Structure formats: C-alpha cells, structure tokens
Amino acid sequence: QKRKTVLPADFLWGGAVAAHQLEGGWNKGGKGMSTADVMTAGAHGVRREITDGVIEGKYYPNHEAIDFYTHYKEDIKLFAEMGFKCFRTSIAWTRIFPNGDELTPNEEGLQFYDDLFDECLRYGIEPVITLSHFEMPYHLVKTYGGWRNRRLIEFFARFAEVCFKRYHKKVTYWMTFNEINNQANFQDDFGPFTNSGIKFKPEDNREQVMYQAAHYELVASALATKIAHSIDPAMQIGCMIAMCPIYPYSCKPDDILMAQSGMQKRYWFADVHARGHYPAYIERYFERKGFELDITYEDLAILEVGTVDYIGFSYYMSFAIESRADNPLFDYDENRDLVKNPHVEASDWGWQIDPKGLRYAMSWFYERYELPLFIVENGFGAIDQKEADGTVNDEYRIEYLKAHIEQMKISVDQDGVDLIGYTPWGCIDLISYGTGEMKKRYGFIFVDKNNDGSGTLARSRKRSFEWYKQVIASNGEIL
Ligand code: P53
Fold this sequence. Notes:
15 helices
C-alpha cells in the first residue's frame, strides 16, 4: 500500500533550462542570429557586452553553450534516471523563424523540437515549453526596434500558432514570455534588451519605452493564449513571472508603502496576464507620469479574453526596500532603492537566500489570482569543485533546494495552495543568463566546460543527482 504524500500523486517534478543557455548550435539547422548570440561573457560585477551583430575575435558563450543541440539524447537519459516527470525548456524563436518576419517556418528547426519532445516522451517526461525565453531574432531588433514596434505582436502570434499547431499533442503546459517583469528594471540596459530587444537611445524616456514594449508583449501573450485554446482547449497557457517579493525594511509606514509600490511596479504584469485588464494603480501611474502609450480598444478586448490558465514563476531570492525622504511618491528604482536584508544570507553573487520567502510568494500569488501555480525555476548558482575522484559534493545546493521544497510543501499543506509542479533551474550546468559565465553552476549534472570556453563537454553526476532522484521517488517525502 502506498503511503499518502503531501504533494499530489501527479506532481510534476523536473528541471528547467532555456534554449539559448544550453543548446549551442547557434547557426546550425538554419537557425538565425538571436539576441542571445550577440552577448559576450561577463562576471559578477562585470557586465555582458551587447554587440551590434557578431563581431570577430569576441567570445560569445551562448554560441556553443553546452551543445545540448547534439547531446540532448544523452542528457534526457540522465534526466530520466533522476525520475523527471517533466522537462522545462524553450523553443529558440530563431530556429523556427530565423529572421522573425518570414511567413513560412524553417522545417529543420521544427523537426529538431519534434525529435527532442519525442525523446522526452519516450521516458514519460512531459515537455513544458516557454515560447520566448530571453531571446528573439536579432533581425527584429535591427529592423523593427524590437518590442517598441506593434508589428512584433503579429510576428510572435505567428510563431506561437505554428508551435501550438505542431506540438499540441506533445506539450500541454506552455508559457509565453519568460520573466516578463524583469524589464521593470528599465534603469538598466540588460533586462530591456533580453526581454524585449530594446536598445535605448539617449533621447528615450526609458520607462515609457519599457511600458510600451510590455504592453505589446501582454497583448501578444493574450492573443497567443486565445489561439492556443482555439486549436486545442487541453493546452494550458501560463505567464512566467520573476518573483522576488519586496519586503519593507522596517515597520515604518513609509517603508510599507515603498514596498507596496515596488511590488506594484514589478507585478502589475501578472495582474494583466491573470485578470485581463490593467489595474487602476498602474493606469493612474501612467497618467501621473504623462506617458503616451499606444493602447487601443482592440488591445484591451484581446487582454480580456486571453487570460492565463496558470501562474508560472521563478523564485530565487527576496528583496528588501527602504523609503527615502526625497521620494515622497514612492517611485520605484530597482538599482537605487533595494537594501540588504540583515536577516538572510546571500550567495556569492549577492542573491539573498530566503526559503520562507517562497511560501510567502506562493500565498501572495494564490490569494490574488486563485489560479494553479507552477514553480518553474528555483536554484542556487555556485562554484562547484571537482574532487580528485571526479565527484562534486554540492551539499550547499542540496541544502538550498531542500529548504525551499520544505517551504513549498508547507504552502501546499497549510495554506492550501494548488501547485502543479517544481522544476529547479539549470538541472544540467549551463551558461548563466546574467553573467554569461559557466562557473555559476546550478545543475545536478556537471558539464566539463570553463568560462573561457575550454573543456570536453563531458557530463557527470553530482552528489545532488542522487539526492534529487530520491526526492522525486518519494514524491517529496524524503528530503
Ligand atoms: P543567472 C533575476 C532574478 C530572478 C531570476 O540567473 C532571474 C534574474 C535575472 O538574472 O533570471 C532567471 O543565470 C532566468 C534564467 C536565469 C536564472 O534566473 O543569471 O529566467 O534564464 O539563468 C538564473 O544565474
């Protein structure tokens, strides 16, 4: 007789990655140049450079990545050995539409994902798919200015429709835009480029440009959702939100209001995805700031019908914020306003480790939207040491994941949250999105590759591999 578990029997345990961070093969199989192909490597405190096209002599870590493009069978076999029920990856838009504005898709790209999904399904691993995970055809940046341009809606909808029609029998859970709210940090150049293909000009009102791009993406997402449901109502379309709850630094009322304002600026995206309309607070904010935004009645009608079926989100860390005397209206500037939380530890990259914040975040989403949740990223980026015998004793990673799974279970058990699954980030080592490094590792599977691109690409199991296998086998009862 099977013992009862806290998590439902059909809980989707797995792992998550993104096409550009592991596939490599950046110009193989007819693939076009993407925004991720023009980003060089950085480090903690050293920014990645975004070049205009691919420049000879520069190192672009995503071009080869871990060459999943040719190693995928071997890698999926390892995922199956851990007992994965699902595998979250993304479809590289440029494999399907190399330039983004073509009318007919690239068959070789479509076939690659058919083969990849079939390989997963052979082991009973369900593919969970993000349509746009921090990449888009670079041609759309050069010719149309990225998501500044309304025409991107049409290009994205075509891409989405082709994918839904082709894979609806193989893929149930989809997400439209990865961490759409990462660009809330518009003061920075990186998020707006990776989210939306935006290159700021000196004369830009950055914030207005960001809201406009986000609006077009939200309309494109709603349109895609509507299309998916008409093709096959069994398909579940989710949003994907980077959830870093913002805590007030103190119980001072101004700190509370500052935190609330910060939460609004980071999470209004989820309100639109889930409720199908703009919340009043953000409309008033647009008015106060005098933004001129192209938002039509037709757009609003699409938002209304294309609401998401579930909330996909990443959770790595929490933030803390303090009010300032010179900011009486509580405007949010992510680069300026966040402060260190003295009650939690941080990783080598300054990410604050806060397992209880996951429980808090789950309740926040569930109480607000009453939609199923899917934790599609969570994890610990660390420098792993290979022992003389080749093993990696990544105790710290096990400890991090264990503490988060414990809180996730409490959320389901005590708070009644409806949770679909859990896919830790970078289940196999891959290129860091933020820094382009290889040494910031998340995986259960070690990949022999270094920051400078050297290495054999050989795969090996870390200590966390056996640990996670037993977590899945016990449906989260043995941690
Ligand atoms: P890297 C910020 C906050 C939460 C998640 O990031 C974030 C970010 C951006 O840095 O991004 C997600 O590789 C993203 C993944 C990414 C992962 O976090 O910088 O969806 O593509 O790899 C980890 O350590």
